[in-house]
Design brief:
Blueprint (H helix, E strand, L loop, with lengths): L1 H64 L1
C-alpha cells in the first residue's frame, strides 16, 4: 500500500513537473516576443523622434527665411 501511494505521488509530481516545464517554455516564448516588440517600438520611436527633429529644423529654417 505504501509503495502504491508513493508511486501515485511520483506520477502526480511528474505531471506537475511536465506542466511547470511547459509553462516555463511558454513564458520564455512570450518574453522573447515581448522583447522583439519592445525593440520594434524603440526603433519606431527613434525614427519618429528623428523625423520631429528634422521637421523642427526645417520649420526653423523656413521661419528665418520669412
Amino acid at each position: 500500500q505504501d509503495i502504491t501511494t508513493l508511486e501515485q505521488n511520483i506520477g502526480r509530481l511528474e505531471g506537475q513537473v511536465a506542466r511547470y516545464k511547459n509553462a516555463a517554455e511558454n513564458e520564455e516564448k512570450v518574453e522573447d516576443e515581448l522583447k522583439a516588440e519592445k525593440r520594434k517600438l524603440q526603433r519606431e520611436l527613434r525614427t519618429a523622434l528623428d523625423k520631429i527633429e528634422e521637421m523642427e529644423m526645417t520649420n526653423s529654417h523656413l521661419m528665418k527665411r520669412l
